[in-house]
Design goal:
- By secondary structure, the chain is of the alpha+beta class.
- The chain folds into two domains: about 1-65, Ribosomal Protein L9, domain 1, CATH 3.40.5; about 70-145, Ribosomal Protein L9, domain 2, CATH 3.10.430.
- Helices cover about 40% and strands about 25% of the residues.
- The chain has five helices and nine strands; from the N terminus they run ββαβααββαββββα.
- A four-stranded mixed β-sheet has the order 4-9-8-6. Strands 2-1-3 form a three-stranded antiparallel β-sheet, with helices on one face. A two-stranded antiparallel sheet has the order 5-7.
- Strand 8 (about 125-130) and strand 9 (about 135-145) form a beta hairpin.
- The longest helix has 29 residues, at about 155-180.
- It is elongated and about 65 Å long.
- One of its GO terms (cellular component) is ribonucleoprotein complex.
Length: about 180
């Protein structure tokens, strides 16, 4: 089913694009919510006429998007996250967290125009910020460990010496409780 989009939908297309979608997605979501209309021949003619009339506005929006994208040249986001001993984060780093970190740097971006996979490990990743149809910025995102786990070599050395004493003390208690439970 061909649909003319009435607004930008990340992952599908931009405003005034003609896209092919599954019938159910078009009929049950895009058309009822006003995010798209059926691309009939009459609607396509009207779209072409509107695009001719709005060419100057579209060029101005694109220039504004390019100006905003230029602000992100050389910007890198470093996000401290709590991690386990294996380097896996507790929770995940997503677009909302990246938008918050950018806001701390004075760069306001709506989290909805940032696309990335949820990050669950320490490392360097890439997020894409979609400003306009052909204006996108690749933003490096580095996740670092907030809490560096300390080596447990000392604890391992002490544990075998203490373990037999602890087991000897616990064993009689366990035997006393077992008959009472039966």
């Amino acid at each position: 089913m061909e649909i003319i989009l009435k607004e930008d939908i990340i992952g599908l297309g931009y405003k005034n694009d003609i896209v092919n979608v599954k019938n159910g997605y078009g009929r049950n979501y895009l058309i009822p919510t006003g995010k798209g209309v059926i691309a009939s021949p009459a609607a396509k003619k009207q779209l072409a006429e509107n695009l001719k009339q709005q060419a100057a506005k579209i060029a101005a929006k694109k220039a504004e998007a390019e100006k905003r994208a230029a602000q992100f040249d050389g910007v890198e986001v470093v996000i401290p996250a709590k991690v386990s001993a294996t380097g896996v984060t507790y929770g995940s780093v997503n677009a909302a967290i990246v938008a918050e970190e950018l806001a701390k740097k004075g760069l306001e971006v709506d989290r909805k125009i940032i696309t990335m996979r949820d990050i669950k490990k320490v490392g360097t990743y890439e997020a894409t910020i979609h400003f306009f149809k052909e204006v996108e910025v690749k933003l490096p995102v580095t996740v670092v460990a907030e809490n560096q786990p300390e080596p447990k070599a000392e604890e391992v050395a002490e544990t075998p010496a203490e373990a037999p004493v602890a087991e000897a003390e616990e064993t009689p208690v366990a035997e006393e409780e077992a008959p009472a439970a039966e």
